[in-house]
Design goal:
Layout lengths: L1 E2 L8 E2 L3 H9 L19 H8 L3 E9 L2 E8 L5 H12 L17 E4 L9 H7 L5 E2 L3 H6 L3 H13 L1
Parallel strand pairs: 5-6
Antiparallel strand pairs: 1-2, 3-4, 4-5
Length: 161
């Protein structure tokens, strides 16, 4: 099955047989897993992560290829360190926290983006929303996509404005 962002409701459809035949003829393997769950919805990666962390959904943010995949929500945690400990407890492994500003979570609002969350442009959207705390993928994954340095530069420049 493939995911079609232009379809309302159930966005999945079968891969056309001619495309499967073409892939087979060209000896090309196809593996898809994560992308369909990036689009915000009741079972999306980001919405599910927010729910698991006890973050109350408030709004979508950051449109990417025609769909929103980021979420802004309210946490009961007051500081990034409390939130970080809560994330660590929920995901079951260590997490890394970079403090570029206040440790206080402004208005107890946080932004989350589980898929493509390392996109450098997202930092401006988080700042425009008045949010100073952002949860996304690990730095090891960021470095694998070569976005880490530009993402970190964006975070620092947005924080200083």
């Amino acid at each position: 099955m493939i995911w079609d962002t232009s379809v309302e409701g159930f966005p999945f459809r079968n891969i056309p047989r001619d495309l499967l035949s073409l892939l087979e003829d060209q000896r090309i393997s196809l593996y898809t897993l994560h992308i369909p769950l990036d689009k915000n919805g009741p079972y999306s990666t980001t919405v599910s992560l927010a729910r698991a962390l006890g973050i109350e959904y408030e709004q979508d943010f950051f449109e990417y290829f025609g769909v929103y995949f980021g979420v802004i929500g309210k946490t009961d945690k007051a500081t990034i360190f409390e939130l970080s400990e809560g994330v660590k407890a929920r995901v079951g492994h260590d997490v890394k926290t970079w403090r570029y500003g206040s440790e206080e979570i402004v208005g107890q609002k946080v932004a989350l983006a589980a898929g493509e969350g390392n996109e450098p442009d997202i930092v401006g959207h988080v700042a425009e929303a008045g949010v100073n705390t952002y949860i996304t993928v690990s730095p090891e994954l960021l470095s694998a996509t070569n976005h880490q340095s530009s993402f970190m530069r964006s975070a620092r420049s947005t924080q200083s404005t």
